[in-house]
Specification:
By secondary structure, the protein is an alpha/beta fold. Helices cover 40% and strands 18% of the residues. The chain has a 5-stranded parallel sheet, sandwiched between helices. The structure holds adenosine-5'-diphosphate.
């Protein structure tokens, strides 16, 4: 039987932590579908088409990685594409609680679909899409955080938005 996994997320935008998980997961399965969720509760910087195109350009060279948008329940999308596994990445302990809850929920909804979590490589443990957006928007060097194509897309996006737009949650300042 063909082993198919999906790697769901919002990928707004795709960063090196995502790339690492996708490439490692692709080695474990016959096919990996990077599933770009089109309606996350978070505020998005990039449209679904833009997020899909970036992931496709960066990961599409890998013969067994496909990128597809979805808007349903994640397990429903997994069933539609014939995936038996959901891949998630774990960065820090605090990710675990939410991933655990989502995995149990998904297992309740679709007992035949397993969730597999891959540990981040330690150099990406701090990296989130929000951090990428904040660093970029405030003029920090984000070239070590995202692939060159994503960096170019961030520059292009900034040129289309007003200067005072801060399309990020300021994660570095907490009250
Ligand atoms: P982010 O958390 O960066 O905004 P998503 O919400 O789109 O990204 O996350 C999609 C998946 O990728 C989740 O399973 C998330 O835990 C995982 N992930 C995100 N960043 C990293 C990272 N730096 N290392 C490993 N996994 C990650």
């Amino acid at each position: 039987m063909e082993r198919v996994a999906i790697y769901p997320g919002s990928f707004d935008p795709l960063h090196y932590g995502h790339v690492d998980i996708a490439q490692r997961a692709a080695r474990l399965f016959d096919r990996l579908i990077v599933a770009v969720y089109d309606r996350p509760s978070k505020k998005l910087l990039f449209s679904t088409a833009e997020r899909v195109a970036m992931a496709q350009s960066v990961l599409g060279g890998d013969a067994n990685i496909e990128v597809r948008p979805y808007h349903s329940l994640t397990v429903a999308f997994a069933e539609v594409v014939g995936a038996q596994v959901l891949v998630r990445g774990l960065r820090v302990i605090s990710d675990f609680e939410l991933e655990y809850q989502m995995a149990l929920t998904n297992n309740q909804l679709a007992p035949d679909i397993e969730t597999i979590c891959l540990m981040t490589r330690h150099e990406y443990a701090f990296l989130t899409a929000s951090i990428v957006k904040e660093v970029f928007w405030l003029g920090g060097d984000s070239t070590s955080l995202v692939p060159p194509l994503v960096f170019a897309e961030l520059q292009r996006k900034r040129a289309t938005l007003p200067d005072d737009t801060g399309p990020f949650t300021a994660v570095s300042i907490r009250d």
